[in-house]
Amino acid sequence: MAISRYKDFSTVLDAKTGLRRLETFPPFTSEELSRANDVIIEIQEGQRIDKIAEDFLGDGRYWWVICLLNDLTFPFGKIIKAGTKLRIPASIDNFVNLIQTKIG
Prior knowledge:
The protein is an alpha+beta fold. The protein is built from 4 helices and 4 strands.
């Protein structure tokens, strides 16, 4: 039997959906993650989170940063409604350093 790469993750109750999900990062408050020079965008019809990451952060693989900052638990399983506002970090390096500091 194969061992899951997720075996060491704990689960948390998602307050928005009432469902359990993997806790992939320690809990952050929006105050810890938000910075005054972050960019706020409004989702347009059909916009994808990975494309937004590519446009603003230089690499579509940073989609998880946008999810973490905006408390999006599963952005690929549902359409994010047009008009939804998302915060994008001004500096990917500063954001990743903050996370590394928190998880030590």
